[in-house]
């Protein structure tokens, strides 16, 4: 799998698809290093790791670039910008080895809030995961619990999404926190995406039959910032 991923990275590199090739280089090298460590051959492992580091250095010019926490990409979404659907934002990081996803977002709530369609947004995000190419088996959602009359609608909506995901072999693990503030999404391949507004960066559609109601790539966005990091430690302790 590591060799195939590196091969794919080279193909993407040759096609000038540098961002995608970077993701594949990182994952392929990580997979190959895991195999090297598993052999228990210290000398051979050192030579292999040195060779892989040399590949990184020769292509990207910084041998520390792939170290944990070194990678950082920032995307600025302007007010009313379009073309930032979930597939556009996340797809290059959702490679085939992704099987577990963590979503921390305090505002995954009911659909009748004045400016939020957060449950629908979360559902759309789950649909993207189900479509692949990743093989997601578990989604962990950490959010805050709605208060008042909206609580039952929030619980009902999340349980409906949970049941629907089961039909696709995906487990949705739901947890609530009264102190959650951070918004971030983590994949078990090491990629972490922080969005200033969480999943709710789309504006309310002008009407049920307006362009952008169904296709999020055509939906105007609120201004926000997206930060992408890489780290092997995706699950918070």
Describe this structure in words.
This protein is an alpha/beta fold and 237 residues long. The chain has 2 domains: 1-61, Up-down Bundle (Methane Monooxygenase Hydroxylase, Chain G, domain 1); 71-233, 2-Layer Sandwich (Endonuclease, Chain A), CATH 3.30.870.30. The chain is 38% helix and 16% strand. The chain has helices at 2-14, 18-39, 42-60, 86-90, 118-131, 150-166, and strands at 72-77, 100-104, 138-143, 171-176, 184-187, 191-195, 224-230. The chain has a 7-stranded mixed β-sheet with strand order 1-7-6-5-2-3-4, covered by helices on one side. Helix 1 (2-14) packs antiparallel against helix 2 and helix 2 packs antiparallel against helix 3. The longest helix has 22 residues, at 18-39. 27% of the residues are buried. The model is unreliable at 47-51, 53-58, 60-69 and 233-237 (pLDDT under 50).
Keywords for this entry:
Methane Monooxygenase Hydroxylase, Chain G, domain 1, MITD1 protein, MIT_dom_sf, 7-stranded mixed β-sheet, globular, alpha/beta, Endonuclease, Chain A, disordered C terminus, 2 domains, 237 residues, MIT_domain_contain_protein1
Average predicted confidence as pLDDT: 81
User: Looking at this structure, what is the CATH superfamily of the largest domain?
Assistant: MITD, C-terminal phospholipase D-like domain
- What spatial order of strands do you see in the largest sheet? 1-7-6-5-2-3-4
Structural class: alpha/beta
Note the quaternary state here: single chain
Anisotropy-based shape? globular
Quantity of strands, as a count:
7
Task: Calculate Rg over CA atoms.
Answer: 20 Å
Report the major sheet.
7 strands, mixed
